[in-house]
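Researcher: Hi, I'm a grad student and pretty new to this. My advisor asked me to get structures for two proteins we've been looking at. I'm not sure of the right format, so I'll just paste the first sequence and hope you can take it from there.
Model: That works fine. Here's the first sequence with its structure tokens right after it:
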Amino acid sequence: MPVPPPGSETFRAAAIDLGGSSGRVVGAVLDRGRLHIEGVRRFRNRAFSDELGLRWDAEKLFRDAVSGLRVLRRRGEAFSSVAVDTWSGDYGLVAYGGLVEAPFHQRDSRTDRTFPLVDAVLPAADGFRSTGVTALPIMTVYQLMADREAGRLDGVDRLLLMPDLLSHWLGGAQVAEATNVSTTGLALPRGQGWDHDRIATLGVPSRIFPEVVAPGTIIGRVERGILGDGDRTAVTAVASHDTASAVVAVPAVDEHFAFVSCGTWILTGVEVDRLITSERARLAGFTNELGVDGTIRFLRIAAGFWIVNECMREWGLDDWGPRSTTARDELFDRAAARDEPSVVIDTGDPRLLRPGQMSARIAELVAEAGGVMPSDRADVIRLVLESLGAFVARQVDEAAALSGVDVRVVHLVGGGSASAILAQAVANRSGRAVETGPSEATSMGSILVQARAHGAVRGSLGDLRRIVRASTAVRRYEPVVS
């Protein structure tokens, strides 16, 4: 049994973790230096389209999250704290205390028009040199230009990034959490807040941007009636960008590691103490995102299990019923028994980012690589997972070379860590050991930051990671030379 860090005591909290295709509420207790997950409630997150574009049903997400909290609350004692994390980029516009309209989805094509408009006044290359943030169409800055052009910012009181919006609906103050702010394209480097010069250049009203707070800030109490009369659970801002929370829960024993946070997106990188803003880093597609305790996540973002999910949707296997679940499981089992594909595709190709016709997009890339598109669905899944592994291995090599980090082990966390095909492909192609788990890294990172904010545990980021390692069954994959 590991010795609990100073100040360690029993602490019960909940994490609301929202991803691009699903959400979950995780209840956990920290006791004697170990984190125990007590319950998980999962629900669907489906975007919808209207005459204006692709959107998120934020109000339904909130209702589903509250329902999950209530179920877990009935199972045990009250939570001391609750926190929200989501994907980055998207936001809600608030006026007169309510949401103006459903938030736009980062994959909506409106940013195809605004990307060049922003680049004309805020050149992407200049922005990378000053902030270390690479330009991606999904970022807040390009979506805001679309809203400005459409007149949607008229009369708006606040812009709230997605996790801050849901935290506010729970009872938290209208704030912006720093790790998520760092990804918007409108932030000063190193968590110094909003860059109001860039905001003014963009022609967006500065008044709509809320105060920036650090992860670990208590921002309010859950509104009475949400969890029960008299329940005054704290609302805590954690590392609300889901990758930032996931990296908190990487069970690393020293600094010689790369991380792979794998879900809808796959994010591969290293943790450093400085911005890396070389031209080579920019051209390689890397970005610098703020982490907990002033760390920097130097990483590359690309499509992850989004590719698989879109194939499943195309094949009619995206339902959450038992029949679809069984069919998906059988498909993955068959994929595990198949031979490695003769070619792999570049899963970093932007053609894979848009929804719809995923099989056709994959076939196009296979043909360009000199191969033939498999006819069997299990072979397609094997091809995608092997291709993701090859992509991750290249990014690990690139991140190590650009940062100078001596990467000796690759930590694969998040939902994708359950894929033995992916883990072994990364190990084989990178020549490095891969350790997988925890699958609930994002929620575990959130709960540990909550625990530290409330004094249930003290210590450094390394101390929090020791708790994760003591609480997780880590599986190790060694490279196999064929």
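Researcher: Oh nice, that was easy. Here's the second one.
Model: And its structure:
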Amino acid sequence: MSQEKAVVVFSGGQDSTTCLAWALRTFREVEAVTFHYNQRHEKEIECAKNIANKFGVRHHVLDMALLNQLAPSALTRADIPVEAGKDGALPSTFVPGRNLVFLAFAGILASQVGAKHIVTGVCQTDFSGYPDCRDVFIKSLNVTLNLAMNAEFVIHTPLMWLDKKQTWALADELGCFDLVREETLTCYEGIIGDGCGKCPACVLRNNGLQAYLMERNTID
């Protein structure tokens, strides 16, 4: 186990909750940060608070309302429908600059609380075409953060090369499978747990869950 401290970018969803559990196993001390950008569902903030409390970690909620003003998307506007990208376009749920801004502010927070490690749940395997979930972006931003702040941060992406089935398997290994399944919010319609079952986030999550359950039952 590392004797260092980490800040986890935490939304209260499946991926970031799995990353929080991973960080707690990996680092001596962990804090979580959630960004409030007037996202479509206030429940996201509530979920993050409740889960952070269950894990017993210090939880920061930062006001990022300007992002909502600058970057309208289906995640920030109730009147914009959730739609997959067509003809190579990005999905309507893409929030331009979100991970860039979040990770930059996570770095600022990390510097204030004495953390050298930043953990985020971005994933290139199941990334819906979001450019700011790619490994090359994370590596580039890591260099930029360190240059900008004269620091030696390390950005960790435990899920980068995992598909959703493998992410469920990791949650199970970390002992938080039931919590992730029942108490996290992934659904674009704001329904906790298994969600609406129809939106792209729910379909991806449930397909991975069923694939993992089938594999686990076969092993058992």
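Researcher: Is there anything I should tell my advisor about the second?
Model: You could mention this: The longest strand covers residues 29-36.
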